[in-house]
Structures are given as structure tokens and as C-alpha cells.
Amino acid sequence: MSLAPETRTRIAQLVESNSVMLFMKGTPDAPQCGFSATVVGILGSLIPDFASADVLADPDLRSGIKEFSDWPTVPQLYVNGEFLGGADIVQEMYGNGELHQ
Predict the structure, then answer these.
(1) What is the pTM of this model?
(2) Contact 25, 56 (CB under 8 A)
(3) pLDDT tens per residue, range 29-83
(4) H helix runs in the chain, sequence order
């Protein structure tokens, strides 16, 4: 399936307009998977606020974000417009101090 131009534009705008953007299952207050909960917990320990989008609430976003990043899973974290990765990579970056920067 090809990423629709409207969905690509919407994702790009979210990534570009938020210094920390998390595409996740659920919301920060109610994560709907353990991986999303883990990333929310890590981010919450580092910064007071971040933007998020619930991919479960939007099927176009759910499939589109995977194509946009060429990454097969959610959650997906973007910082300053750069895709960092999913839960495992975020945990690793947090553990070695890279994410603190």
C-alpha cells in the first residue's frame, strides 16, 4: 500500500511542528500497549511535555507512519524532526544517556 499524499503531509507537519513527537497506541495518560507505556514513562522522566498521536484512533495514521519512517512497529519517536526509533531503541538510548541530550 502506498502512503497517501494527505497522510504523508499530516505526519510531516506533526513531526516538524513538535520538538518531541510520539506516535503511539493510546494516549500518554492511557497507553494501549506495553511498548507505548515504556516510551511514555521514559519521556515523562526526562521532559515535562511532549506531543503524541494515537495510531489506534486513525487507521490511515497507523499504516502511514510505518511507511513514512520505513519502520514496521509503533511506538515511534521523533525528536527535532529526526526519527529515533521504537521502544527498544528508546530504552537503549535512555540507558546509555543519549536520549538525555
Answers:
(1) 0.95
(2) yes
(3) 999 999 999 999 999 999 999 999 999 999 999 999 999 999 999 999 999 999 9
(4) 5-17, 34-46, 59-69, 87-95
